[in-house]
Design brief:
Elements lengths: L2 H9 L6 E6 L5 E8 L8 E8 L8 H15 L4 E7 L3 H10 L2 E10 L5 E10 L1
Parallel strand pairs: 3-4
Antiparallel strand pairs: 1-2, 2-3, 4-6, 5-6
Length: 127
């Protein structure tokens, strides 16, 4: 993913969203995270998404991103953050669990944009 790709996503984000980007010493993007409102959630909740470049996990990038995101979520008045994670994304499940997210639901048979059917785990972080 390029900086231009991220800039295009950010340009279309709704109000009450926040983006945080992690860069390495050469100013290359190695991770990013955002929160945004989601129509299926109550107004006091935000959806979260996190991406860290392959080979860059376990270095504290996700921890730093989440600290910034958690602070921003509180400042925007959110009461909790929702993570919607593919059941086969072991790294994602571990990441959110290690941040303190708690399981609260499952979406079975979710159809991805490419037609693939997966289960999703729902996790919640109370601010």
């Amino acid at each position: 993913m390029t900086a231009q790709d991220i800039a295009e996503w950010i340009a279309f984000d709704p109000p009450r969203s926040a983006w945080h980007v992690a860069v390495d010493a050469e100013e290359r993007i190695v991770g990013f995270q955002w929160i945004e409102p989601e129509a299926s959630l109550p107004p006091e909740a935000a959806n979260i998404a996190t991406f860290v470049q392959i080979g860059q996990t376990g270095l504290g990038i996700g921890s730093a991103l989440f600290e910034a995101t958690r602070t921003a979520a509180r400042a925007m008045g959110y009461l909790w953050i929702n993570a919607n994670i593919r059941a086969d994304n072991e790294g994602g499940l571990i990441y959110y669990q290690s941040r303190g997210f708690q399981d609260y639901g499952v979406i079975e048979g979710y159809r991805m944009a490419d037609g693939q059917i997966v289960d999703k785990r729902l996790k919640r972080y109370d601010l």
